[in-house]
Design goal:
By secondary structure, this protein is of the alpha+beta class. Helix content is 15%, strand content 41%. A hairpin with a 4-residue loop joins β2 and β3.
């Protein structure tokens, strides 16, 4: 029984750690919180924070691989409800690479994606390419988060 209770406590802590969204406010890569190396707080604290809009996108781990090549990422909603994103991809490999940047806007409470867009870029080794996604989604109101996903393939 104690094992089940411990698993429930850990699971509730993970749910609390993964919640968050930007509610239509500008989100930058620097806004994303840094992960902690130890589990702290109680299940009560995690449950209290779970599902709350932190005003920032959450990060479950430091960026590695292709995700670490995304720099200066911003995503926000205009007063009209149109979400747009921009950033730069810096090729950290020794060969030209094809990057795919997927950007999604989703409900913080349900994780339902309300809009998404994909940008594909070919970036030479050591070079930087800027990108803009003029319309990721059209959705007014609070409770939405905008997140990028980056993949890299050899060109």
């Amino acid at each position: 029984m104690r094992g089940t209770a411990a698993l429930a406590l850990i699971a509730s802590g993970l749910v609390g750690a993964c919640s968050g969204g930007n509610s239509g406010k500008a989100t930058t890569q620097d806004d994303q919180p840094k992960p902690s190396s130890s589990a702290t707080g109680s299940a009560k604290d995690s449950a209290k924070d779970s599902g709350k809009d932190s005003g920032k996108n959450s990060a479950s781990a430091e960026a590695v691989g292709a995700r670490s090549d995304l720099q200066g990422f911003t995503c926000d909603a205009a007063s009209t409800g149109v979400w747009s994103a921009s950033g730069k991809v810096v090729n950290s490999t020794k060969k030209s690479a094809k990057y795919t940047v997927d950007v999604a806007v989703a409900s913080v409470k349900t994780s339902t994606v309300v809009g998404s867009a994909t940008k594909t870029l070919t970036v030479d080794s050591g070079k930087t390419v800027s990108f803009t996604v003029p319309t990721v989604a059209t959705r007014k109101g609070d409770g939405f988060a905008c997140t990028p996903h980056v993949t890299r393939a050899a060109d």
